[in-house]
Amino acid sequence: MSLNYTCPRCGTPLGYEGLCWKCKCEQERNAALAWTPEQVAEKQENLVQNIRRLSDFKDPEHADFWQLLSYRDAITPEIQRSALAAEVFWPCEIYYHAPADVRDGLIAALLKTEDSHEAGNLMSCLAFQGDDRALETLLELERNPRPWRKGLYVDPSSYAQIGGWTFDREGQKIQLNFDTCYPMVKGISGEVSPVRIGRPREDTCPHCGGRMVDMLVLDGRDERLRFLGLDGILTAACCPSCVGFLKGPAFNRFTLDGGVEVFPSELFDGSERADCYVRPEDYKTLTENPFVLGKAPVPLFYGCASEDVNTVGGFGNWVQDAEYTTCPHCGKPMKYLAQIQWDTVFDCAEGTLYIELCPDCQIVSMQHQQT
To answer: Origin, by domain of life (predicted)?
Structure first.
């Protein structure tokens, strides 16, 4: 395809006339953030009346739902009750912190169903509702499985992870995400930020010979990042070329004074040396990207409505399934920390890098997903 056009906002070469996809996403987000209270109320009422249209990506209700949830934190109990009455169980995020009557309806439907697929959807919905009664229900189903469990790949405790939590064998709840979210936004030249994406390193990858990169560096002592409980610096280092090909996540241990110990990783079943797909100009783009930490917190699902948003905290926009890594040191599930959309920081990759944290062991994991 010939690139005969350029995006009128950012200058990106295009094969069509109009905005590039990233500028289009930004335009739509800014429009949603500018909705008046009357416009928000109108879209909420439309969702109540047309809740079944959520299943079609092409219907405006689908976009309205994600914008109301992600940018306005404006999914009401009335919308949730309408979804339950219509037996709409996708997207499961619609039931986030739903009231007790909706929770009880989800539990009743889950205990009644004999269908594995429906049971999986209902457990996902209940995971996003996420209160103690939801925990008790999933725990009981884990201890005493229903016949439909044979048709599923994982236990209820894994479905709970979709909602940002899980539980141990004793039934103790384990929180897997933070209840605060900040965006990483484009800053101005020379702007100081407690968060940096893509700091260059001197060492090279043992698999491909390319440059290692500190993909995320953040200073938990900044007042905005106090919610992380880190009294110092966290560094997440990996090879940007190889992290998408590893058999599992890339790991490193960090020290609060800025130190890093990168763990060895198995690549391509330990076979021959890998190619490095990141060119010198790509490293330059990555390590000179303009992103800084936003000034104010945003809704927890802010990074879930589009693929051009990098966030710290909140919920991730999982391309495939929510995947919480097991800490290689203590064996506990790690906590979701941040997401970096690859094509916001350079052009030679697509998909998302998810960064997770074990606060007790001071270990981070980095894993890649893409369509």
So the answer is: Bacteria
Number of other residues whose CB lies within 10 A of the CB of residue 289: 19
CA 240 distance to own-chain centroid: 18
23-37 residue pLDDT tens: 999 999 999 999 999
C-alpha–C-alpha distance, residues 159 and 123, integer Å: 6
SS3 letters across 160-222: HHHCCEEECCCCCEEECCCCCEEEEEECCCCCCCCEEEEEEEEEECCCCCCEEEEEEEEECCC
C-alpha atoms less than 13 angstroms from C-alpha of 145 in its C-beta half-sphere:
13
3-class secondary-structure state, position 357:
strand
pLDDT tens for residues 296-305?
999 999 999 8
pTM score, two decimals? 0.94
- Rounded Cα–Cα distance for residues 309 and 303 (Å): 5
